[in-house]
Amino acid sequence: MDFFEAQDRARARTRLAIFLFALSVAAIVVTLDGAYLWAVSATRQEPLPLAELIRQEAEPLTWISLGLVAIIAIGSLSRILLLRQGGGFVARTVGGTLVDPGTKDYRERRLLNIVQEISLASGVPVPEVYVLQKESGINAFAAGFEPADAAVAVTRGALEQLNRDELQGVIAHEFSHILNGDMRLNIRLIGVLHGILLIALIGQRTLRMMAYAQPRTRRSGGRGGGGIPVLMAGALVMMLVGYIGLFFARVIKAAVSRQREYLADAAAVQFTRNPAGISGALKKIAGLESGSKIRDGSAEELSHMFFSLHRRIWFNLLSTHPPVEKRIAAIDPTFRPDQEAQVAARWSAAWERADGAMLGFGGATAAVEQLDPDVLTGNPQLAALQAAQRLIDDLPDDIRNALAAPEPAELLVLSLFVDPQREGRAPQVEALRARYAEEQIHDVAGLFRSARKMPAGTSLQLIELAAPQLRRLTVDRQQELLEAAEALVRADGVIEPRELGLLLALRAVLQDALDPVMRLGARALSQEKDAAHTVLSWLALVGADGDDDAEAAYIAGWQELFGTTVAPPRRREAVDGQAVLDAVDRLDGVDFRGKKLLCRGLLAAAASDGRIRVEEYEIVRGVHAALHVPLPPALLEPETTSNGASG
C-alpha cells in the first residue's frame, strides 16, 4: 500500500467531505431563510411575488444567513481547537486511562509491547496508550492530528477477550489509520458535526426558555408576551432543521468512513501477514454477547473512529462501519455466518513468533533492492515487526526503566547525543552542567554506556520509544530538552551527520507534541530546489570515500528528484548544520507528491554505491521524520569484516 497515494486519497476524501458538508450547511441556511419568508408572507394581507419578497426582506435574510454560518463555523472551530490538545485528550473524554509503563497487569503490558513493536516497525513515535476500563465490548480507536501526538485506546473487553494475535491485528488496523492520514479527517468530521448540532441545540434551548417564559407572561397579564409564540415557532423550526441537517451530515460521515475500514483491515493483514488475527477479533465481535458495544454516551461523536460498531442503523445508512460479516468475508473467504455461534469456544490461538533479523549491527549494510521507498514508506513489514519484538525484549534494564517515566526518558534521549569519541565529550559535559544537576549528568553517562552496547541504528528507535514519556513533560521542559539537545550537538563546534539526524527526529517528536496542528504541504518540489540542493549536498558527503563518490551520490539523488542529471554544482565544502535544518523545514511544506520524490532521492543518494550503511540509513530516517513521512528501520545484514557496536 503506497503511503503517498494513501495520503492523497485521505486528502481527496477530506475535500469531498468538506464539499458535502458545505452543501449541508447551505441547505440549512436556505431552509431557515425559506421558513422566515413563509412566516413573513403569512402575516401579510396581500401576497407578494417571491422575488419582491426576497428584495424587501434582504437585510434580515442576510443576517439570518450570516448568523447561521457563524454559529456553525464557531461551533466547528471551537471543537477542533479543543481536540487539538492531542489524541490523549480524545481518549480521556470517553473514559480512557493512560497505561503506566510499569503496570503489573500482564494484559496491559502485552498491549504496550504490541504498540511499541508496531511503532518501531512503522518508523513512527510510540503513541500514548489508553484503556477504556469500563467498556466490556471489543473495540479500539486511534486519535490525534499527527503521529507524534497520537494516542491508541483499547477497551478492557478487548484486552480480556482477544489473544495476542487478535489484539495485534486490531492495533495494526488502528496504525493504518495513523499512517494513512485518517486521523486528521476524523477530527474534521467531529468538528463539522458539532457545528451543525449547535444549530439544533440553540433552537432546543430557546424553545425550552420560551416555554418556561410563556406561563409567567400570562400570570403578569400578557404584557410583552405577544412575540413569544413567534419566537417559539422560530426556535422549533431551527431545532428541526438543525437535527435534519445533522442527520444528513451523519449520512455523509458514514459514507466517508465505511470504505476506509476495508482498507485498514487489508493493511493490517498486509502488515502482520496473519489474517487469522484481525478476522478472529471480528469473529468474536460478531459472536460474543458484548460485541463491540461502547456504553459511554460521549462516544457517539467518535463512532467513525472506533475499530467496529456492530450494529446496523437505518439499513446501514448511518453506519460508519461495514457489516462485520462483510469485513470478515473480505479477509477470510471461507467464513460462514453460522460460525458465529462457535466463536466463544475458540478464544485462543498460539502464535509462535518467528525469529526475525535484528535491526542493525555495527558496520551493517543493506542491499539497495531492499530499500524501495515505495514499498518501505508507511508500509511496515512482518520481518520488521518481529525484529522490533526482539529489540524490545533485549533492552537493557536501565534503558527499559528510563522509558517508564518522563524525567529518566529525557535523560535517555540526551545520552543518545553524547559523542562516541572521548575527546568530543568534554564540551558536552560543560553544556549539560549549565542545565542539569550532577546526579542527572551521572545518569546520562550510565545510559550512554548502556546505549553504546546496543546494535547500531537503534538511537532513533529509542527516541520513538521515549515519545510517550516526553509528551508528559511540561511544555517548558520539552522546550528545554530540545535546547539541551541542540547544545550537545553544537558543543564542539561541528554538527556531525549522526547528531543532525537524531536532532531532526527529536524536533519532529517534540514540536508536533508542542503544536499538534494539521501540516498539509501545498508547495511543489520545484519551488524548493534550493532546499533540495542543500540537503542532497550534505547527504552526499555522508559516508563518501572521496569527492567522486560524493558527486555520484549527489547526481543519483538529483536525478530521482527532478528526472535529470543536469544539476546545480554540488556544494563541496562542509554544509552548515543550521542550513540543513532550515532546508528540511522548508521541504516539510512540499506536497506529498514532492515528498515521494524526496524519499526516492534521499535513498538513491545514500545507496548510490550499491549498499547503504546503517549510519547513512538512520540519517535518512531522521530527515524523513522531519518531513512527517514514516520510514521503518531497515533489516540490515552484518558485514563479515565488522562486528562492533556503535553509539
Low-confidence stretches: 344-364, 637-647
Strand order of the largest sheet: 1-2-4-3
Let me know the CATH homologous superfamily of the largest domain.
Metalloproteases ("zincins"), catalytic domain
Number of helices: 25
Terminal CA distance reads: 33 Å
Can you offer a commentary on this structure?
By secondary structure, the protein is mainly alpha-helical. It folds into 3 domains: 3-86 and 185-256, no CATH class; 88-175 and 259-345, 2-Layer Sandwich (Zincin-like), CATH 3.30.2010; 367-517, no CATH class. Helices cover 61% and strands 4% of the residues. It is built from 25 helices and 6 strands. The chain has helices spanning 3-43, 50-56, 58-83, 87-93, 106-122, 156-161, 164-179, 182-219, 228-272, 275-287, 324-331, 373-376, 382-393, 397-402, 406-416, 425-433, 438-452, 459-471, 475-490, 497-514, 529-541, 547-562, 577-587, 592-606, 614-626; strands at residues 96-98, 128-132, 140-143, 151-155, 365-367, 611-613. The strands form 2 sheets. It has a 4-stranded mixed sheet, with helices on both faces. A two-stranded antiparallel sheet has the order 5-6. The longest helix has 45 residues, at 228-272. The radius of gyration is 28 Å and the shape is globular. The two termini are 33 Å apart. The relative contact order is 0.11.
Topology at a glance:
Elements: H1 3-43, H2 50-56, H3 58-83, H4 87-93, E1 96-98, H5 106-122, E2 128-132, E3 140-143, E4 151-155, H6 156-161, H7 164-179, H8 182-219, H9 228-272, H10 275-287, H11 324-331, E5 365-367, H12 373-376, H13 382-393, H14 397-402, H15 406-416, H16 425-433, H17 438-452, H18 459-471, H19 475-490, H20 497-514, H21 529-541, H22 547-562, H23 577-587, H24 592-606, E6 611-613, H25 614-626
Helix pairs in contact: 1-3, 1-8, 1-9, 1-24, 3-8, 5-7, 5-13, 7-9, 7-10, 8-9, 10-11, 15-17, 15-18, 16-19, 18-20, 19-20, 20-25, 21-22, 21-23, 21-24, 22-24, 24-25
